[in-house]
Structures are given as structure tokens and as C-alpha cells.
Amino acid sequence: MSDTVIAWLRTVVPGAWAALISGLVSLGAPAYLTDALGNATGLVVLPIVLGVVYPLLRKIEASLPDWLTRILLGSAQPPSYLDKHKTP
Questions:
Q1: C or N terminus of the chain, fewer CB within 10 Å?
Q2: Phi, psi of 86 (to 5 degrees)
Q3: DSSP 8-class letter at 79
Q4: In angstroms, rounded to a whole number, what is the distance separating the alpha carbons of residues 71 and 73?
């Protein structure tokens, strides 16, 4: 798999997990929390959840088995950027 595809997967898959979690949180959140936000609940909750989920997954990645890393991050192999950004 190319580094571009790996990077894309490792961005989109955690975002999808965050969207799922934020949707579940919004469904189960008390009315006094969601009523004040109205229709913006999803717009507010998603970035907060993503801001927690993504760094947490990256932090625990080394201790996860490859199969679980693939499920949570989209790929067990991080993209390599070193060769593409060498300075002459």
C-alpha cells in the first residue's frame, strides 16, 4: 500500500470512530447539555471527541496488536515521510 493511502486511512478511520462515538454520546447525553447547542450538537461534540480519540490511539498504538491497530487506525504501518522531505 502506498504511503498516501496509508496516511489517508490513518486520518479517516480514527475520524470515523470519533464520529461514531460522538453520535452515541449525542444520543445518550442529557437534554440539558444538548438543548443549549440545538442542531450544533454534532458540530461541537465531534471535534472534541476527535481531539481525544486520535491522540489516545496514537499513544497506545505501540501496545496494540496489529489486527486491532488496523481496526482502530486503518493500518498497522505508519506512513514514511523521511525520503520525501529530504533536503539537498
A1: C
A2: -70, 140
A3: -
A4: 6
